[in-house]
Amino acid sequence: MSGCVWGAAPLLEALGRLWEVQAPLGSGSSASVYRVRCCGDPRAPPGAVKEFVPPPPRPGPARRPGARPPAADCAEYGFRKERAALEQLRGHRNIVTLYGVFTNHYSANGPSRCLLLELLDISVSELLLHSSNQGCSMWMIQHCARDVLEALAFLHHKGYVHADLKPRNILWSAEEECFKLIDFGLSFKEGNQDVKYIQTDGYRAPEAELQNCLAQAGLQSETECTSAVDLWSLGIVLLEMFSGMKLKHTVQSQEWKTNSSAIIDRIFASEGVVNSAIPAYHLRDLIKSMLHCDQGKRASAEKALCSPFFSIPFAPHIEDLVMLPTPVLRLLNVLSDASLQCEEEYEDILEDIREECQKYGPVVSLLIPKENPGKGQVFVEYANAGDSKAAQKMLTGKIFDGKFVVATFYPLSAYKRGYLYQNLL
């Protein structure tokens, strides 16, 4: 832990339980996030603590009337603001869950306010890094777009604007098998915007950009930022997922301001983009509907969910199943056709695989199809994604019956329905 935030021992007491601080997950200007696990209960799922840390006090003259409040007050305000938003938005599957709040009395700079949150997995930002400029699969883009739009439709209905939607703030939930929105530090109730500088460079809507410029000049903007700013940000995120490119400099260029539609067309027509197929043009039109410079013409989250893009069935690529954890593990290159045909050998191998897989957690079910689709593949369902992730890490590359094992995850929802994807390339 940097600076021994939690004292000499990396432990903290929250909600009547003792938690071990395992690793830092990230930090911002006013808060840091840590991975934690409940002590004394190894089966309890890990969590995340977001600590709003006041900086050390600086000696100096008394604050002038009208001056900015001290950083300690900003940390307290940020905590109260995010807590209020998460409490009012609690219960939606595509919004990070707030478990509770507490005060850490052992912080280096005095008591600090903390949020105890569900721990999520890989972010869209990390997925983009792994895409190697090739772009994400249509399955992943569709999955992310639908999940985030569902979250936005809900929070906009509640009167909230997220105001900082970007790849780092969209994370995968391995347990619920969906993407979730995090970080409501800049969020506000529509019509009651309490901060001038919203959104992040590269994902900032034109009206927010104008507002920021005017605020820097000490002027008031006549245009109010609405929930439409979130749709703009999501449009940029989806365009980056499709192209595999960071578009910050593109969206800040004069060419974009003059004719963004032509640039979007060029990206979708590019030979370097793997996904240039007919269904991609439904995605192109969806993205264009989010990126109107006139916020009044921008699609709402509810309207965007009606796009024909969401009616197209896509299958995940094998890279998707390696990157996105679920409670189900899929083992490849384990069984030969001969093993499947000999019942006695099949049963022995089945027992060996079950015994090996149970080293990483209780196995809920195990399936080895003898016919296509899925012939010879091994599907192992664990009680939780944590066990599945541990097994995937240890079993990948292991030699079984003279063959190197390939271990990926598999959608729990598809597995439960008995649906085995035939094409995962």
UniProtKB/TrEMBL annotation:
Record's protein name: Serine/threonine-protein kinase Kist
Xref: PANTHER family: SERINE/THREONINE-PROTEIN KINASE KIST (PTHR46962), SERINE_THREONINE-PROTEIN KINASE KIST (PTHR46962:SF1)
Catalysed transformations (reactions): L-seryl-[protein] + ATP = O-phospho-L-seryl-[protein] + ADP + H(+); L-threonyl-[protein] + ATP = O-phospho-L-threonyl-[protein] + ADP + H(+)
Subcellular locations according to the entry: Nucleus
Pfam families according to UniProt: Pkinase, RRM_1
Gene Ontology CC: axon; dendrite cytoplasm; neuronal ribonucleoprotein granule; nucleoplasm
Enzyme Commission number, as recorded: 2.7.11.1
Function of the molecule: Upon serum stimulation, phosphorylates CDKN1B/p27Kip1, thus controlling CDKN1B subcellular location and cell cycle progression in G1 phase. May be involved in trafficking and/or processing of RNA.
Amino acid composition bias (Pro residues), ranges on this chain: 53-62
Family matches, as PROSITE patterns: PROTEIN_KINASE_DOM (PS50011)
